[in-house]
Amino acid sequence: MELQLSAVLGSLALGGAVLVLFFVKWWQPLAGTDRRVKELADAVEALLRQRYEVLGHDPAPSSDTVRAWLRRVQEAQDEMASIKARHDGGQLYVVRLVQYLFLPTGPVAGLAEQQLKAVRALREQGAAILDAALATPQAPPPLLCDPEELEGLPAEAGPARAYLNEALRFLGDCDAALGVWGAGGVGKTTVLKLVREVCGRVARFDHVLLVAASRDCTVAKLQREVVSVLGLRDAPTEQAQAAGILSFLRDKSFLLLLDSVWERLDLERVGIPQPLGMANGKVRKIIVASRSEALCADMGCRNKIKMECLNEEDAWSLFQANVGGDIIHGHAQIPALAKQVAAECKCLPLALVTVGRAMSNKRTPEEWSNALDTLKASLRSGTPGLDKSTQALVKFCYDNLESDMVRECFLTCALWPEDHNISKEELVQSWIGLGLLPDLSDIEEAHRFGLSVIAIMKAACLLEPGDNHRYNMFPSDTHVRMHDVVRDAALRFAPAKWLVRAGAGLREPPREEALWRGAQRVSLMHNTIEDVPAKVGGALADAQPASLMLQCNKALPKRMLQAIQHFTKLTYLDLEDTGIQDAFPMEICCLVSLKHLNLSKNKILSLPMELGNLSQLEYFYLRDNYYIQITIPPGLISRLGKLQVLEVFTASIVSVADNYVAPVIDDLESSGARMASLGIWLDTTRDVERLARLAPGVRARSLHLRKLEGTRALPLLSAEHAPELAGVQESLRELVVYSSDVDEITADAHVPMLEVIKFGFLTKLRVMAWSHAAGSNLREVAMGACHSLTHLTWVQNLPCLESLNLSGCNGLTRLLGGAEDSGSATEEVIVFPRLKLLALLGLPKLEAVRVEGECAFPELRRLQTRGCPRLKRIPMRPARGQQGTVRIECDKHWWNALQWAGEDVKACFVPVL
């Protein structure tokens, strides 16, 4: 038995050895093939980098030798792709073995070896070409374009032209990274914005991304900036977000402009494809702006531009331009005084602009002399150093603002994160809640007044235009931004103690008791606070701030809310988008001094009766609540006797708890309360009539109507129903209608404040007629799942329209009609003077934007088209200087099949495929 077992084992061992020898014999050449193909791919990659260097020295080769070499490089790249495809096509061992033994063209390894020798020869020839180019005196790398020839560059381009020229040369050479460094306020951000604008017109980058890194920048924060600019979706983790960014940018050429970099950033962790430079035929470049030359070098910038203060001549010109020639030459003594004031600005562009604007209303020599004395005294009292001097100059401009109210509004802008794009609407809402604006009973008047205050600050250059990535607007008229030097100064000017750590990447509140003790305003917004250790709880125990901003901490811990309940002097609390789920945080009901409460973008199921304890509450926002049901107990609103603004909306378009709004209207009717702004869901036309009867004491600013009962039309916009609905028509700013059997909308009533309309799931809607009286101020129109509509010709009569979003309207065949619809000549150009966003999504029957003739979209910045297979042409007449300014997001095949009226039309668009 043992002998038999030994024989069997011996036979198995011998057979195994034979098999091993067999497979080793045949596997070795296959493993060698893998190695050879990889060597070829690496060699071709190096050859392509060499080609990029050659083109950097000679962008338009005139030599036959160089042109022939470039042609052979392209052939080598194509041959490598063919070999790799053949190799990758047979990954199974048996398939590859058969290929190796029987293919008449020979094994892949032999082809790879032969091509590798050819590539090495091309690299040797390329090295000789480069040596010859280096030995020949070369002119500076060509500009990507001459900024002198570009029309419409901002006024600040003048002093920055020399630096802009250097940046444009970098875009034409073979370097991957450029550093722009210098003190705060010398114009680094201005140069990056100018590069972005120029590249949007003439460069061949698929994407140009300007993102602000700022202090305490984290990977997650930089990812949010990149995602916002690219219009991508948020991902739950850093790793998933990096994968999404990498996947999107991997096969695209891009220019990344990194502003306000304070420390080295790991771009690979962010998801930026590596290596930078030339890769797979794509150009990947970055420009880093920082105050530190060493940091630019640490970010891989071989070439660096040092930005200096202006020379005296340019400084004087910039100062004059901001003061105004009529002011400076309005009196014989002023020019000499003006030159002394300009000299105190130390040739720093930011100071020259802000101080110049501050002096633009000084018309007498006495005013100029007093201002000069004040400026000198301010500089003497400041700490030596360029940044400190700049802060003293900003202080001079701050003191020259027209009132204490404007100065305090200016300071609050520093509560937002550094380099943050602040929505004007959000900013004005905060000023109203903080009680900074005059007591105006009309909320619309208060908003207009707040916008005028922003205009004053922009005119003084203490605020600058921000970016609105939603419209791809650069710059934006809906957002503002505070320069980091100005923000640093503003935080020093605060009359009381402030604790500001906005956008600092905090995972817990500050622990130091000294920071909390005596702090009047606290801003921890836009962080990731998710824990409150015991030591932090001790620091919070004695804190009594008047305002607390915690918005956009998406997972705010319960212990933070428990600490907040002891802030009994709190009058302003912002908890928007802080991850509150299910139960209302009862701790808030202890804050009896509260006047402003924002709980928007949370998941709150019901409001408690204890909320009535907040007898001082004036502004309550609960917008975009994620649950489809919300319960408001009867009697709650009447207990909030000082409430002026109430906005309660669900984010769902499907269902709301039946009659949830009835207690609100009942309370308003029974108590006779006055409310400056009401935003709420309504279910019936009868509810609209009840609200109308409460006017003008109750002003319905925003209405969401759902499942309207007892009507086939929409009476709210009809002049026929003005007698019973005029109270709502006069104050309505936003109207949203979902899931109703409305089949006709005739908007001929005078609705002077209406700016936003959104219609969804109106599947029977066939006819829409909109008069000028109802649509003269409309800024935003959105239509979704309105399947019976065939056209929207009426939108061409909306002079203020900025956003038009159409989705899922299966019956829509054209957007605009012809002459028979518009009543105008067919050849007449239809102009949308202010339209910035046009979204055409899921419109399977859409065949034309306009039946005949052209349209002009002079302000268009973003066009989205998906699911529109029949749309073959964009009948657009380009505006002057519109080339490269419109981002179009669409399917690659659709883009390639578009029919263009001319290359000038196509040149307007930057495709995102």
TrEMBL record:
<dbReference type="GO" id="GO:0009626">
    <property type="term" value="P:plant-type hypersensitive response"/>
</dbReference>
<dbReference type="GO" id="GO:0098542">
    <property type="term" value="P:defense response to other organism"/>
</dbReference>
<dbReference type="InterPro" id="IPR058922">
    <property type="entry name" value="WHD_DRP"/>
</dbReference>
<dbReference type="InterPro" id="IPR050905">
    <property type="entry name" value="Plant_NBS-LRR"/>
</dbReference>
<dbReference type="InterPro" id="IPR027417">
    <property type="entry name" value="P-loop_NTPase"/>
</dbReference>
<protein>
    <recommendedName>
        <fullName>Disease resistance protein RPS2</fullName>
    </recommendedName>
</protein>
<dbReference type="Pfam" id="PF00560">
    <property type="entry name" value="LRR_1"/>
</dbReference>
<dbReference type="GO" id="GO:0005524">
    <property type="term" value="F:ATP binding"/>
</dbReference>
<dbReference type="GO" id="GO:0002758">
    <property type="term" value="P:innate immune response-activating signaling pathway"/>
</dbReference>
<keyword id="KW-0677">Repeat</keyword>
<dbReference type="InterPro" id="IPR002182">
    <property type="entry name" value="NB-ARC"/>
</dbReference>
<feature type="domain" description="NB-ARC">
    <location>
        <begin position="173"/>
        <end position="324"/>
    </location>
</feature>
<keyword id="KW-0812">Transmembrane</keyword>
<comment type="similarity">
    <text>Belongs to the disease resistance NB-LRR family.</text>
</comment>
<dbReference type="InterPro" id="IPR032675">
    <property type="entry name" value="LRR_dom_sf"/>
</dbReference>
<dbReference type="GO" id="GO:0042742">
    <property type="term" value="P:defense response to bacterium"/>
</dbReference>
<dbReference type="GO" id="GO:0043531">
    <property type="term" value="F:ADP binding"/>
</dbReference>
<dbReference type="InterPro" id="IPR036388">
    <property type="entry name" value="WH-like_DNA-bd_sf"/>
</dbReference>
<dbReference type="InterPro" id="IPR001611">
    <property type="entry name" value="Leu-rich_rpt"/>
</dbReference>
<dbReference type="InterPro" id="IPR042197">
    <property type="entry name" value="Apaf_helical"/>
</dbReference>
<keyword id="KW-0067">ATP-binding</keyword>
<feature type="coiled-coil region">
    <location>
        <begin position="30"/>
        <end position="86"/>
    </location>
</feature>
<dbReference type="Pfam" id="PF23559">
    <property type="entry name" value="WHD_DRP"/>
</dbReference>
<keyword id="KW-0472">Membrane</keyword>
<dbReference type="Pfam" id="PF00931">
    <property type="entry name" value="NB-ARC"/>
</dbReference>
<keyword id="KW-0547">Nucleotide-binding</keyword>
<keyword id="KW-1133">Transmembrane helix</keyword>
<feature type="domain" description="Disease resistance protein winged helix">
    <location>
        <begin position="415"/>
        <end position="488"/>
    </location>
</feature>
<keyword id="KW-0175">Coiled coil</keyword>
<keyword id="KW-0611">Plant defense</keyword>
<feature type="transmembrane region" description="Helical">
    <location>
        <begin position="7"/>
        <end position="27"/>
    </location>
</feature>
